[in-house]
Design a protein that fits this description.
The protein has 138 residues and is α/β, with parallel strands linked by helices. Helices cover 41% and strands 21% of the residues. The chain has six helices and five strands, in the order H-H-H-E-E-E-H-E-H-E-H. A five-stranded mixed β-sheet has the order 3-2-1-4-5. It is rod-shaped and about 95 Å long. It starts with a helix and ends with a helix. 12% of the residues are buried.
Length: 138
């Protein structure tokens, strides 16, 4: 009778160490993962050649909202009409002149848009300071 009572006793496994291990693994993967998408963009520096300067278009990036001027016209980065103007003018190289307050993310966004539209030769040009009166006029 005593032997039957001992054999029916079920040994339970404690789940506490398993939960601890799962929590530690979850914490490790959360801290070691990166959720941002990293990619590279080829940027060439201007060489100063007069021939290349004539073949290249100059775009001015005016502010962080992505306002662009090309040939006296003003566009936004989302508006692809400036890319059509570049292609219509036969420009396949672009120099980007950047206003001093524009952040890097806006510059990268403009370069990405140009690359997506088939303009692969993009170079950073000058950094300029635009007066407050000119910005308000736009």
């Amino acid at each position: 009778m005593l032997l039957e009572a001992q054999s029916k006793k079920i040994n339970r496994i404690s789940l506490t160490p398993l939960i601890d291990v799962v929590f530690i693994l979850l914490l490790f993967f959360m801290l070691s993962s990166s959720f941002s998408h990293w990619f590279s963009i080829d940027i060439s520096m201007p060489t100063g050649s007069k021939l290349e300067a004539r073949e290249a278009a100059r775009i001015q990036l005016l502010n962080q909202q992505g306002l662009i001027t090309y040939n006296g016209s003003t566009f936004s980065i989302g508006n692809l009409a400036f890319v059509k103007s570049l292609k219509a003018d036969g420009k396949n190289q672009v120099f980007i002149d950047v206003e001093s307050n524009v952040n890097t993310q806006t510059i990268v966004k403009l370069i990405s848009v140009l690359n997506e539209q088939g303009i692969k030769k993009v170079a950073l040009g000058d950094v300029f300071i635009k007066s407050k009166v000119q910005i308000e006029a736009l």
